[in-house]
Amino acid sequence: MKTDFLIIGAGFAGCTLAERIASQLDKKVLIVEKRDHIGGNAYDYYNDDGIMVQKYGPHIFHSNLKEVWDYLSRFTEWNGYVHRVLARVKGKEVYLPINLDTMERLYDRKFNPEELREYFERKRVRLDQIENSRDVVVSQVGEELYELFFRNYTKKQWGVYPEELDPEVTKRLPVRFDHDTRYFTDKYQGIPKHGFVKMFEKMLQHKNIPPVMLNTDYREIIDSVSFDKLIYTGPIDYYFDYIHGKLPYRSLDFKLETLEMDKYQNAGVVNFPNDYDYTRITEFKQLYLQKHPRTTICYEYPKAEGEPYYPIPKKEYQEIYQKYKREADRLKSVFFLGRLAQYRYLNMDQVVDGALNLFKSI
Ligand SMILES: Cc1cc2nc3c(=O)[nH]c(=O)nc-3n(C[C@H](O)[C@H](O)[C@H](O)COP(=O)(O)OP(=O)(O)OC[C@H]3O[C@@H](n4cnc5c(N)ncnc54)[C@H](O)[C@@H]3O)c2cc1C
Q1: Domains of the chain by range and CATH?
Q2: How do strand 52-54 and strand 280-283 relate by DSSP bridges?
Q3: Helix (H) / strand (E) containing 300
Q4: What pLDDT is recorded for position 168?
Q5: Ligand 1 and 136: CB distance under 6 A
Q6: What local confidence, expressed as pLDDT, does residue 165 receive?
Q7: From the CA of 355, how far away is ligand 1's center (Å)?
Q8: Which one of 117, 135, 165, 337 is CB 3.0 to 4.6 Å from 130, fit for a cystine?
Q9: Which atom number of ligand 1 is nearest to the Cα of residue 15?
Q10: Dihedral of alpha carbons 287, 288, 292, 294, sign
């Protein structure tokens, strides 16, 4: 088999580069994907009940990058969904990130921006040095809000308390001094009107892109394909046979349930910082603005082993990644891109931006 470009992985990184190369360079692009579907972690589908769901947890597109938004908008319309997240604490439901509305609901009193600033000033813990994630939070909002929203949630999410995590994990704590209850304040946000997969299908609709080779680990075919350049969006440590050790990830279990009711909860996503083993519940119909007499919800249970989702934010693992990166930089016809190849938590827009930039340099 012969192709100009071989792309490993059919997520945002792989699909964006395939589309650009096929349409702008008029080169043949073969995509190999280990899973049985395209779309990477943004994969969505109609379940047996006819409700659109996402297999790998809630994905909401949001960005301030006009170039990325304009680019994706060639392949989809957007449904206009604005993401809001509620947290259930002390028997109440309050919006995240913390804003005036959150504080008013929590403490049954009015706050104006000045009063909230004074409140934090009184509550915040004065520290000489910020050494971990806990320090980041308590130095801004104090112990009480730290306990309510961060301590136990972090333990569930990462398996360790904030004291053991680098400050970068909560580097910038978004606290708002207004009544903006949106989760993302980005200029552009929403979900593709007909789902992420329909958008990806449109991106890959080109004479230079043959059907994606699904259910195939690239190693099964690499020796039988002749190609000029390789774009790799899988795990970087796997590419180099773990020569510098394995890069650890935090994983998740998703448990989906369809219920005989029109609406289950008061926001698309509800977080449970302190109760239960799951971190949050997503109600997909709210994200997709779908009308249906039933509803499907998804519980998220963090775990240590399994599909790689979140790179563990610790210095020692960054050092291992840097060793792999040095190996990667030496290869002239292989390009590494995306959340697994760069061992970084990247939002979808950042991945598309990275792909558009890499394309310009190829
Ligand atoms: C629970 C969760 C929620 C998220 N929510 C959001 C959100 O709301 N908004 C947002 O912007 N971002 C969100 N993200 C991040 C988003 O998932 C990523 O930005 C996006 O998936 C990155 O695309 P990618 O192409 O780099 O990686 P992926 O989507 O993972 O695609 C890589 C593909 O490569 C394939 N692959 C790997 N190894 C091989 C191999 N050996 N051979 C063949 N194929 C291989 C994989 O199967 C995969 O399909 C979320 C992530 C998670 C985990």
Answers
A1: 5-38+204-248+312-361 (3.40.50.720), 96-170 (no CATH)
A2: unpaired
A3: strand 295-303
A4: 81
A5: no
A6: 87
A7: 14
A8: 135
A9: 25
A10: negative
**Which DSSP letter does residue 90 get?**
T
CA nearest to 44, candidates 200, 185, 195: 195
| Contact of 12 with 338, CB cutoff 8 Å | yes
| Measured CA distances, 252 to 108, 277, 302 (Å) | 35, 12, 4
User: Which residues, 6 or more positions from 360, have their beta carbon under 8 angstroms from its beta carbon?
Assistant: none
Residue type for 90, please? K
338 lines ligand 1 (CB under 6 A): yes
Mean pLDDT by 10 residues, the chain (362 residues): 97 98 98 98 98 98 98 98 97 97 97 97 96 94 96 93 86 86 97 98 98 98 97 98 97 98 98 97 98 98 96 90 98 97 97 98 90
Take atom 10 of ligand 1 and give the residue whose Cα is closest.
347
End-to-end alpha-carbon separation of the chain, Å? 23
Cα–Cα nearest to 350, from 78, 62, 81 = 62
Residues 227-259 as b/e (b if ≥16 CB within 10 A, e otherwise) read: bebbbbbbbbbbbeeeebeebbbbebebeeebe
